[in-house]
Amino acid sequence: xxxxxxxxxxxxxxxxxxxxxxxxxxxxxxxxxxxxxxxxxxxxxxxxxxxxxxxxxxxxxxxxxxxxxxxxxxxxxxxxxxxxxxxxxxxxxxxxxxxxxxxxxxxxxxxxxxxxxxxxxxxxxxxxxxxxxxxxxxxxxxxxxxxxxxxxxxxxxxxxxxxxxxxxxxxxxxxxxxxxxxxxxxxxxxxxxxxxxxxxxxxxxxxxxxxxxxxxxxxxxxxxxxxxxxxxxxxxxxxxxxxxxxxxx
Length: 249
Prior knowledge:
This protein starts with 27 loop residues before the first strand and ends with a helix. The chain is 12% helix and 35% strand. It has two domains: 28-203, Sandwich (Jelly Rolls); 218-249. It has a six-stranded antiparallel sheet with strand order 1-3-6-14-8-12, with no helix packed on it. Strands 2, 7, 9, 10, 11 and 13 form a six-stranded antiparallel sheet that branches. The chain has one helix and 14 strands; from the N terminus they run E-E-E-E-E-E-E-E-E-E-E-E-E-E-H. It has one helix spanning 219-248; strands at 28-29, 40-45, 58-61, 68-70, 74-76, 90-94, 102-109, 117-128, 136-144, 147-150, 154-156, 165-172, 178-187, 193-203.
């Protein structure tokens, strides 16, 4: 993600905040099939008796509806969803407390100045795993050093997707290095909620500008412009023929 803003010091201190760098590509299950460069994944709570650490259901995906061949549990994808405003890969986490587990996605941020204020922003959304029904809800807990931010709880209808929302908050650093950590919590267990995350940015100064929208092409306008171009080419061709005839004569 390209960062900018009113102040030139607004650089992203997060490594691989868009999840583009992996050990073996996207659309794979983390831990067993791929790892995210710069990030660490740990488990807070799960059913270790059946699956152990491998039961942690989180993925690096090219889109919420991309199909992932999971080594445990079969194919995985979301019922609905769209690519994030940040573009590229995204991180998807399930939250089945005591079953697939609550997961800690974390990274140590270096180069901080104690006492300085830092702005954090990220895109998040809520979907549901294919094959499951029922309304779900969810939120993200974010910690940075001793600071804590909990995103607003969002509600998702059965088989739906909340869309992407950019969250932002500020933290005051207490040391030169601090742990940044994300934990998704969703409910109910039977609904299989899926939290998606992308575009994580942390820095001093203003927020990075949102990605520029891709301009839409109006078919009618495009057709009119094309007709003008064709007409102009026809005029040039006729003039060229007249010049050629005059030169030969």
